[in-house]
Amino acid sequence: MTEDLRALLRADLYAERPPPLGDVVGAAIRDGRRLRRKRRLGVFGTFAAMIALAGVGAVVLRDGPVAVRPQAPAALPPQNVPAAPATAPMAALKARTLTVHSGTERADGNRTKATSGAMLVLMLQLLPPGRTSHYGVAADDDLHVQLSLDDGRGPAMIRVAVARNAPVGDKPPGAAFVTISEHSADCRLGTTVDAQWPDGTLVEVDLPACPGRPALTPDEAVRLAADPRWGVTMAEDLVAEGTQRFPAVPVLG
Amino acid sequence: MMTDDDEFAEFANAHAERLRNTAFMLCHDWHLAQDLTQTALTKLFLSWRRAVQADNLVAYAQKILLRVWLDHRRRRSSTESTPGVLHEPAYRESHELRLTMLDALAQLPARDRAIVILRYFEDYSVEQVADVLELPVSIVKSQTRRSLTKLRELLAADQLALFAG
């Protein structure tokens, strides 16, 4: 009898036409890493405390506030400028995923092991104008940084993490596969934008939506996440500038 | 040398399809099955170092999946009715519409459905089912008997003949 039952179960399953499995494993890994980092950093409490302190203007971190300069695409080598965000219509951002072509798989030039300081430098280059503060980096060797951006509407947190997965073979070179996720049920998660590169580099931008609103618009977040200069190795000049400008940044956790 | 994340990815890629099939057998909804599988894999990722110490990693993953599904059922239970009987009498009376095993399974309570699927779809032993669902072996045995009786009652005549054989 049990064999018949097994046969019936399998026959029913085989009669189904399952949809493609999709990137369920990649999505699980991205979510898992995000949750792991949040656990490790105790991020919710830290974020709430920072906002509360920012409200009374009582925090002065070692690095102090930094004015973000407007992006100057002309200053970058042409191959380093992500082309699609500048031309992609907003309608494209309504999709859950999009492909951002950079014209190069990785930025040119000598690269060395990335540092939190280099990540902060690159963030400041890519963010829209505003006053930044509350820099923080993860402990250990985690490439995970955060800062608060105030564009005149109040401070809001931005976090960027970089990791390296196994190379992805089925994606076109010179393009990042970007996923925009809205966590409407939990404002602490807000919006996340993941950029996956063919070489396995994964850039995650987290934009909590409370209190207030996400620090960046979706197209700004895509532009930040899909810049080809992110990586577990980064340009030597970025690393050198990071060492100079951010010799010591508060460690979160 | 493979990292923990690499090992997880290798395992997950090898078993995601099977997990989704199990999830589909439980919920009879491919989209929900996909969500349940992703949630289960995320939880497995977070507990990977502990998971790899398990005797049977696949069973460990199935255990997480079942808990995710049972949690999902519990969350829904306050807003949706639990199917205890066939919703449309005509469905059972029509010879044109055959009740499939999946339809019949859907009439079982969530835990009983899980027992049947683990026992007869995943080929788990009674002891393994008891371990995955954290139930006494005696409960698994008795619920299995009741579930099979219920399935016999529900299934259409052509499939009932298979049972009798």
Can you tell me about this structure?
The complex is a heterodimer of chains A (253) and B (165). Chain A has helices at residues 2-15, 24-41, 43-56, 83-87, 90-93, 116-126, 218-225, 236-245; strands at residues 66-68, 97-101, 111-113, 130-137, 144-150, 155-164, 175-183, 190-196, 201-207, 233-235. By secondary structure, chain A is of the alpha+beta class. Chain B is an all-alpha fold. Chain B folds into two domains: 1-80, no CATH class; 84-165, Winged helix-like DNA-binding domain superfamily/Winged helix DNA-binding domain (Arc Repressor Mutant, subunit A), CATH 1.10.10.10. Chain B has ten helices and no strands. Chain B has helices at residues 4-27, 30-46, 48-51, 57-77, 89-93, 101-106, 110-121, 126-133, 137-154, 157-164. In chain B, helix 2 (30-46) packs across helix 4 and helix 7 packs across helix 9 (137-154). Residues 78-97 of chain B have low confidence and may be disordered. The chains are: A alpha+beta (253), B mainly alpha (165). The A-B interface holds A 1-2, 4-13, 15-16, 18-19, 21-22, 24-25, 27-29, 31-33, 35-36, 165-166 and B 5-6, 8-9, 12-13, 16-17, 20-21, 24-25, 30-31, 34, 37-39, 41-42, 44-46, 100-102, 116-117, 120-121, 123, 148, 151, 159, 162-163, 165.
Compose a concise summary of this entry.
The complex is a heterodimer of chains A (253) and B (165). Chain A is an alpha+beta fold and 253 residues long. Chain A contains eight helices and ten strands.
